Amino acid sequence: MPENNQAILETPRLLLRPMRLEDTDALLVIFSDPIVMASFGVVPFTREQMERWLQRNLDHQSQFGYGLFSVILKSEGVLIGDCGLERMELKGVAVDELGYDFRSAYWNQGFATEAASAVRDYAFQTLQRPQLISLIRVGNEASRRVAEKVGMRLVEEILRYDQPYWKYALERN
């Protein structure tokens, strides 16, 4: 990973850079929003939960050399979301999940698809990952559309933490 203050992915409207501790307040805007958290079926985060979530992601970046990026809207210079990869174990197999979370004020403008497309390309071309998955809570149609727009296909429905999820997948060509 490059230094934490430089973008490593750029799209026409977005900069994606490694997360850093100073992102806590901006990320809390996302994760304390009841509209955003309803799509996960959980209550909004407290500051303490946000700090733990961020630290877990920073630890992931250190361990694997990649993780979730902070997504900056170039025209405003503001952090509007996160998008990136999380290495996880699913049914005993290590997989890379492509995930994304955005401020509700920036939904339905193509930002999640733009960021997810850049991360998909980075995962396959730069990191040479063989496959990506996305786990989307059943009923979250907006996230489902993003997964489909970046080329993923529904492969199965699974239970995770006693909740039903759609598992989307895409193989590197």
Topology of helices and strands:
Elements: E1 9-10, E2 14-18, H1 24-31, H2 34-38, H3 47-64, E3 68-73, E4 78-90, E5 93-102, H4 111-126, E6 131-137, H5 141-149, E7 153-160, E8 163-171
Antiparallel strand pairs: 1-2, 2-3, 3-4, 4-5, 6-8, 7-8
Helix pairs in contact: 1-3
Beta-strand residue percentage: 25-35%
Give the number of helices.
5
The averaged pLDDT comes out at 94
Largest sheet, spatial ordering of strands: 1-2-3-4-5
Within CATH, the superfamily of the domain at 9-129 carries the name Gcn5-related N-acetyltransferase (GNAT)
**CATH-defined fold name of the domain at 9-129:** Aminopeptidase
Explain this structure.
The chain has 173 residues and is α+β, with helices and mostly antiparallel strands. It has a domain of 121 residues: Gcn5-related N-acetyltransferase (GNAT) (Aminopeptidase), CATH 3.40.630. It contains 5 helices and 8 strands. Strands 1-2-3-4-5 form a 5-stranded antiparallel sheet, with helices on both faces. Strands 6-8-7 form a 3-stranded antiparallel sheet. α1 packs across α3. The chain starts with 8 loop residues before the first strand and ends with a strand.
